[in-house]
Amino acid sequence: MASTYPTDGATAEKNDIPHEKPLSLGTKMLDKGAEMLQSLKPIKQMSQHTCTFALYSQDMSRQIETHHFVTRINQDFLQCAVYDSDDTSGRLIGVEYIVSDRIFDTLQPDEQKLWHSHAFEIQSGLLVHPRIPEAVAKPELENLAKTYGKFWCTWQTDRGDKLPIGPPSLMMSPQCMVKEELVKKRDDKYNMSTTAIRGSRTDIMGPDRLNAMADYWREHKKCLGIEVESTEMKKMTMFP
Question: In the prediction, which pLDDT does 5 show?
Fold first, then answer.
């Protein structure tokens, strides 16, 4: 039997979740001590911060600003921790994996359906590297324009959820301009102009051949989602 969660922007009942306790002095000391003594190597490999926008596949009217903190695994594969802001209070809302067109073309068609292209997102100026001059970011933007991403949102903070509620939602890359108020809010924050940035990227090209299985919704007018349901557990060997 499938579990039911709000999926249309409805806010989870706030009374179901107790008020959060502020950090105690002991917890703060533990965190500081751990920061000094532990390596935190995976986090220190994050080398880029990109800001863009994403759409929920089941409801394209729900558009959110997202901040991706990027680790480069190799030339063909990136992994991103996605937050709802780049402030100290930013909440981890999901994860995105990014592959080159060379890798994407080797995936099975059913897997390719879960991925989106990045070409329009970059050509339109929607994806930016905050506080990095365009001339410096240009080589990376040219590489990213030829990639594909798979982004699972695990915490729908835009609908007011106080905790990560329900199954993850598959997110889509914008294939048209997003809501004007969202773009303006970001432009004001970073003192930038998305319109001007778009004009400077006319020479950035996407993949030589955009794979038709990406951006599945655009061709088939259907979204892909996850439902949580009860299923039989596989038997396992019990050890004494």
Answer: 55
Q: Where are the alpha helices (DSSP H) in the chain?
A: 25-37, 41-44, 101-104, 109-112, 119-123, 134-144, 180-190, 194-199, 216-220
How many CB atoms neighbour CB 230 within 10 A?
8
Residue 138 amino acid letter: K
How much is the mean pLDDT over the chain?
88
Q: b/e for 77-88, b at 16 or more Cβ within 10 A?
A: ebbbbbbbebee
Using a 10 angstrom Cβ sphere, with 0-12 exposed, 13-18 middle and 19 or more buried, the burial of residue 214 is buried
Lowest model confidence (mean pLDDT) among 10-19, 36-45, 93-102, 163-172 = 10-19
Annotate 83-139 with three-state secondary structure. ECCCCCCCCEEEEEEEEEHHHHCCCCHHHHCCCEECHHHHHCCCCECCCCCHHHHHH
- Tokens for 167, please give them: 């199954």
Q: Which two tokens stand for residue 47?
A: 């080398």
Sequence letter at residue 72: R
Q: Which two tokens stand for residue 170?
A: 């598959």
The pTM of the full predicted model, rounded to 2 decimals, is: 0.85
Closest by Cα among 44, 47, 45, 66 to 55: 66
Taking only the tens place, the pLDDT of each residue in 16-48 is: 666 677 767 766 666 676 667 677 888 889 999
CA–centroid distance for 124 within its chain: 18
For 2, 66, 78, 180, the CA distances from 46, given in Å and listed in that order, are 37, 16, 10, 30
Asked whether residue 167 carries a pLDDT value surpassing 90, the answer given is yes
